[in-house]
Amino acid sequence: MLSIVLIGTGNVAQQLHAAMSNNKGVKIIQVIGRDKKKLALFNNSLKTATDFESISDADIYIIAVNDDSITTVSQYFKNISGLVVHTSGSMPLAVLPKSVRRGVFYPLQTISKDRKIDFSKVPICIEAEKSEDYELLRELANAISDQVQIMTSDQRKSVHLAAVFVNNFTNHLYHIGNQICNEAGVPFTILKQLILETAKKAAESPVLNAQTGPAVRNDKLTIKEHLALLNNKDYRDIYSVLSNSIQKTHEKKL
Amino acid sequence: MLSIVLIGTGNVAQQLHAAMSNNKGVKIIQVIGRDKKKLALFNNSLKTATDFESISDADIYIIAVNDDSITTVSQYFKNISGLVVHTSGSMPLAVLPKSVRRGVFYPLQTISKDRKIDFSKVPICIEAEKSEDYELLRELANAISDQVQIMTSDQRKSVHLAAVFVNNFTNHLYHIGNQICNEAGVPFTILKQLILETAKKAAESPVLNAQTGPAVRNDKLTIKEHLALLNNKDYRDIYSVLSNSIQKTHEKKL
Fold this sequence. Notes:
Mean pLDDT of chain A: 91
Order of helices and strands of chain A: EHEHEEHEEEHEHHHHH
Number of strands of chain A: 8
Low-confidence stretches of chain A: none
Largest sheet of chain A: 8 strands, mixed
Oligomer: homodimer
Number of helices of chain A: 9
Radius of gyration of chain A: 22 Å
Helix content of chain A: 40-55%
Distance between the termini of chain A: 55 Å
Strand content of chain A: 15-25%
């Protein structure tokens, strides 16, 4: 069984803790964090610490803190013999101290407090420097997820960027759709099936062929009318740059 | 049982035909279209016509043609006694001739040939001028869908615009995500769960709170690195206008 020390008390730490609890292959033996209130959210039977002087011995140390804090926090692990990993999509492996066995354990998912996540479906992107550390991370990842992917720091950075497009930006488009419906006095629920169907389509079939709408048809009248309907300049800009890019993308295809 | 004449042989016509076949409450008695090959795609036992001189008598005439052709096609129905409807999201009811009982029957869904659609989940937006025609359209819509929504032409136009954001534009963001993965040599499949989870989240909970990512955190370093990673100028523009709009949206909330 792999013994784990979890560093951090935020969303990622909480979700990892939930996924690793009652797991046959993994045991979290300690949670370290500076926020006492948040530490109390974790299992009472767990050893917790608010300082980095009392780190337990473990196979793997998972630093699940904000990107900006990884460097600072990881200094406390300079002389540790276990494998030290962070959970960031955008930070390279090299932000961790050279003196340790280091790696990355990045769960590729939108993580928020309120929503329970089925971690078995969350892809885990792993990186390490030694083959035995890869094996260790693979064992850890397989214990909580069905999809494990080895990737370099550069690849992970690209995947994180791609995730910003398909997750954060998509989410903002949903927000705009919601706003437009509210202003028109139409329930947003009317768009729910369309949202789900569009996502399923992209997940199942090649994305490029699935493109529909006024931009790809170059339906100038509808585009003009849509721009006139939008009274938020930012939304008009979004409409224009996306329509423009859709048209160029599909021109290239021809 | 409602008798229907379907005008058009494209995706919308084909999907409506599929949804109305073997339906207890509705019977398509004729399909009219100019494309003989496409007409052959419809049920053989159905009366089909390539000209508008031999229109059968029916309760409802559904004009499922391109937006640009609605006006032209609807001229052939000027003297008809049944209810004449079009299926467009962006066209007002008023594009149909004043001389007839007119209405709109707009299925709010991304319709493409290859994908079979469960029409019971597709919201149908209906509009008419007389209460008895509303009843007729409601009966037709209820026969194939669980979600029927009455709306004005203006509301429908707004919903169509909202659909462009949550469907067409979202789809383009998926395409960009796909491109970024391809260039990095990472399988796009790694983003599938994220795509599905983001869509489910929006469909279930208020969209505004679900926003995550570097823009809403105002994580300037990551934003800068992401822009540097994108070698397509259009994609950089999309990244910038969306990040900018996300930041303004969430500033307002504070």
